[in-house]
Design brief:
Layout lengths: L8 H19 L22 H5 L27 E10 L5 E9 L7 E12 L8 E16 L3 E13 L11 E15 L3 E8 L12 E10 L2 E11 L7 E13 L2 E9 L6 E10 L3 E10 L7 E9 L1
Antiparallel strand pairs: 1-2, 1-14, 2-3, 3-4, 4-5, 5-6, 6-7, 7-8, 8-9, 9-10, 10-11, 11-12, 12-13, 13-14
Length: 313
């Protein structure tokens, strides 16, 4: 639901001009070489919004703000804010690490919302003489539109992803791969209590770079300081024409004044790997901090941690 009627067009152009310049500068900042024994998933090399990570990624129905850029574009225009977010995540043992920045604005102009993000990640193998890493970059640009004021919003996010693979030997050269894709989604709210979401990710599929088409649907309940959320995800199984593998996620967030606490559980659609998650945050009117961890159940001590800082204008 919108809380005011928006700002002047010059203010919008100034903010977004600066945001695009910053994102463009980050995209051109540097180039990292690449290597590992097997190609990682691009998603593991892409910075995720930390808040939804804390409750299992069950954010399809509750998607809002910066987290909507990755999980459900329909949430870009679901709440009224102008937010800048920087995040960083890595595996606690040798594995992928990623950092990213994003800006989402649904406050300046009541007719639409916009978002832009940049992410960079890498993973390497230090057990060989070749010390290069896999490296990935992703630039995302999103647009959100209100269909029914305060009740239903539509969003789309276009992405450009690059993946650099390592030079394994003098005869096995690395490659520089790239791809464009598109996500689209809907976000709904019924009576400020029931949240619904539906999204399609990687609608332009590219198997060589690891962008696989997915669909997801979610349902959430907002009960005062408590948010309960669940999601179903589907992804076509490799080599099984028309067969859809299913996964699910569930989580809750409970806010004690300015401190949100989060727990969640996730089962991946393909492979069935299971992960427990948790997180904690802090919120004020001007800024926020978030911390989250993910613990795959089959990997014992190996876990992933992520942190983020947000500024609200």
């Amino acid at each position: 639901m919108k809380l005011d009627t928006g700002r002047a067009a010059f203010g919008w152009a100034g903010r977004w001009g600066a945001s695009v310049v910053v994102a463009g500068a980050l995209c051109l900042a540097n180039t990292v070489p690449a290597q590992a024994q097997e190609q990682p998933q691009v998603a593991s090399l892409t910075a995720q919004s930390v808040r939804p990570t804390g409750f299992g990624g069950a954010f399809v129905a509750g998607a809002a703000g910066n987290g909507a850029m990755m999980i459900n574009p329909g949430g870009l225009d679901a709440v009224h804010l102008y937010a800048l977010e920087a995040s960083y995540g890595r595996a606690t043992e040798a594995g992928p690490s990623a950092w990213g920045v994003s800006v989402v604005d649904s406050k300046t102009n009541p007719a639409f919302a916009g978002g832009v993000s940049y992410s960079r990640g890498s993973v390497g193998d230090d057990t060989t003489e070749k010390q290069d890493d896999y490296a990935s970059q992703q630039f995302r640009l999103g647009l959100g539109l209100p269909l029914v004021e305060g009740a239903l919003t539509l969003g789309v996010v276009g992405s450009y992803t690059t993946l650099t693979t390592p030079k394994l030997s003098d005869t096995e050269l690395g490659a520089d791969l790239s791809s464009i894709s598109l996500d689209a989604g809907l976000h709904g709210m019924l009576g400020k209590v029931v949240l619904i979401g539906l999204t399609g990710r990687n609608l332009v599929e590219n198997e060589s770079i690891g962008l696989k088409r997915e669909v997801a649907a979610g349902l959430g309940l907002m009960l005062g300081p408590l948010l309960l959320s669940g999601a179903w995800e589907g992804r076509p199984e490799q080599g099984a024409d028309g067969v859809m593998a299913s996964g699910y996620a569930a989580g809750l967030e409970f806010s004690v004044e300015t401190v949100p606490l989060r727990v969640g559980f996730r089962q991946e659609p393909v492979g069935g790997s299971q992960t427990v998650t948790g997180g904690i945050g802090w919120r004020s009117k001007e800024s926020g901090l978030d911390f989250a961890f993910e613990q795959p159940l089959e990997k014992g001590a190996v876990s992933n941690i992520s942190v983020s800082m947000s500024i609200y204008l």
